[in-house]
Amino acid sequence: MKTNSKSESQRINALRSLDILDTLPEQEYDQITKLVASICDTPVALISLLDEDRQWFKSKVGIDSCGTKKEFSFCNFAIQSEDEIMEISDAREDERFQKNPLVSGKEQIIFYAGAPLRDKDGNALGTLCVIDHQPRTLSEKQKEGLLFLANQVNKLFELHSINKGLKKTQKLLKEKNNQLKNFAGVVSHDMKMPLANMIVTIDILKVKYKNTLDDAGLDYLNNLKKSSFQLSDYITNILTHYESDNITNNGDSLEVFDVHTLVEDIVEMLDIGDDCDISFPEESIDIFTNRVALEQILLNLIGNSLKYNDKSKIEIDIDFKKEPDFYRFYVKDNGIGIPKDKQKEIFNLFSIVAENDRKGNKGNGIGLSTVKKMIHNLGGQITVNSVEGEGTTFEFTIERTKKIED
């Protein structure tokens, strides 16, 4: 059979780009061949794909072989037919197949009906076909069923192609994310030492030239030192964000500890003054989880409750519940609150709600994004409930690790 070499080349390229040849059997395809065999009442049904010199079966019913030579393939004629279905009632009486070894061989293809499987560009990649070992014809309802199921195979091919594209994109995004993570880590580490030197140098200048500098000069140095500390804090938060996966996936950080003790350690680290009252959970309970990660999460949330508060007396309530599958934490404050239209985006990286904190410093929008990422890695979720001007409550869960804790 002669074919247009250009169109055949395009068809072969389309088939290979689908990347489905020689893949393992899949239930979705096998269900279709079983169903079409039942509808058409034939012993054999195939999802056949035609490569350059072979016919390969993605799915098969009633046949042992995985494919045949293309030159003997009935489907090779079907994909070149302009009919929706190529039907051959008795191949022994069709001059195209009288000498075909598949007609006289042990498979003995006497009846054949195949519907071409076409991609969105019209390339016929193969067929959904049914075969019988005796002469027959399909009824109109059987033909309708064959065409309907052939369309379902086309849909499966489209999904396969989409999933292939998504996996490729996912792989590229992962590679880019790793590159960004490495870049951020290298740059941040390289910047920390020069920053530390700047801060020390500023202090030396203030001491050495205290009798020479006027008030304006001292203000310049103080502003420079303040900016250096802000940049240092920014770098630390960036590093924490990109290292959060390592923190949450570190099995060595799993330990049994008391919730009260953890919160006390965090309060001590924050050096909270007399203008703040913190309420601890009612019960002192031992839990088993990633202590380092939980400390980072609570440190950030409690720190935000302190920084973004405009009341003369800061109030922070920390509560905890042990549930069958999760640990549930609450951090509630009487701070400035979060506008309703901002609450969905506060967990986005670099999203900033308030221009300045209690001390006039500007936030960097990294902390809550890191918190959400770590909680997600620990199998939990975080939500926020806030009223502007009244306060905010963060509620989050952490999946309980399977271990006898009590």
Order of helices and strands: HHEEEHEHEEHHEHEEHEEHEE
The Rg value, from CA coordinates, equals 35 Å
Shape: elongated
Q: Helix count, per DSSP?
A: 9
Chain oligomer state: single chain
* Strand arrangement across the biggest beta sheet: 3-2-1-6-5-4
* Strand percent estimate: 15-25%
> Structural class from helices and strands?
alpha+beta
Report mean pLDDT, rounded to a whole number: 86
The helicity comes to 40-55%
Name the poorly predicted regions. none
- How widely separated are the two ends? 78 Å
By DSSP, the count of extended strands is 13
Tell me about the largest β-sheet. Answer: 6 strands, antiparallel
What does this structure look like?
The chain has 406 residues and is an alpha+beta fold. Helix content is 44%, strand content 21%. The protein has nine helices and 13 strands. It has a six-stranded antiparallel beta sheet. Strands 8-10-11-13-12 form a five-stranded mixed beta sheet. Strands 7-9 form a two-stranded antiparallel sheet. A hairpin with a 3-residue loop joins strand 1 and strand 2. Helix 5 packs antiparallel against helix 6, helix 7 crosses helix 8 and helix 8 packs antiparallel against helix 9. The radius of gyration is 35 Å and the shape is elongated. 28% of the residues are buried. This is histidine kinase.
Ordered list of secondary-structure elements with their pairings:
Elements: H1 5-18, H2 27-40, E1 44-50, E2 54-61, E3 67-69, H3 75-78, E4 86-88, H4 101-104, E5 111-118, E6 124-132, H5 140-208, H6 215-248, E7 254-258, H7 259-270, E8 276-279, E9 286-290, H8 291-307, E10 314-322, E11 326-333, H9 367-377, E12 382-387, E13 391-399
Parallel strand pairs: 8-10
Antiparallel strand pairs: 1-2, 1-6, 2-3, 4-5, 5-6, 7-9, 10-11, 11-13, 12-13
Helix pairs in contact: 2-5, 5-6, 6-9, 7-8, 8-9
